Amino acid sequence: MKYSKEEILEGCRKMCKNTLMETLDIEFIDVTEDTVVAKMPVTPRVHQPDGVLHGGASVALAESVGSAGAFIFLNEENVAIRGIEIAANHVKSVKEGYVYATAKILHKGRTIQLWQIKITNEDEKLVSLIKLTTLTLRT
């Protein structure tokens, strides 16, 4: 990483302005050499009708953190990242609190990246396991 952790997290905060990530209150909280972590509050805004976290909100969180990771780890200017495939397994319900998404890169190609994103609850129990494929477009 050519920037400090604090600079990267500040950049992530800025990119969330006026986006779905801001609407869902997604906050980037950590970055390491091979992971990016974000959290999202579980409130009625992200519930399905029966009062538990909507799977679509989990997928939006996962794609947000994985795509941010692809941009961060490529260390290139003038690129756009697009999610081209996402698959999610939801294994546990959450009614309140926070969920945490940890994106880990599995394949870091110049054009295609493969990510595994684990979403956990506040007790670190698995909520969803997601696979994301991203495409890098040179602009």
UniProtKB/TrEMBL annotation:
Keyword terms: Hydrolase
Residue ranges of domain Thioesterase in the record: 51-127
Keyword Hydrolase recorded: yes
CDD domains: PaaI_thioesterase
Statement: the UniProt record of this protein carries the keyword Ligase: no
Entry superkingdom: Bacteria
UniProt xrefs under InterPro entries: HotDog_dom_sf, PAAI_dom, Thioestr_dom
NCBIfam families: unchar_dom_1 (TIGR00369)
UniProt family annotation: Belongs to the thioesterase PaaI family.
Protein name: Hotdog fold thioesterase
Organism whose genome encodes this protein: Patiriisocius hiemis
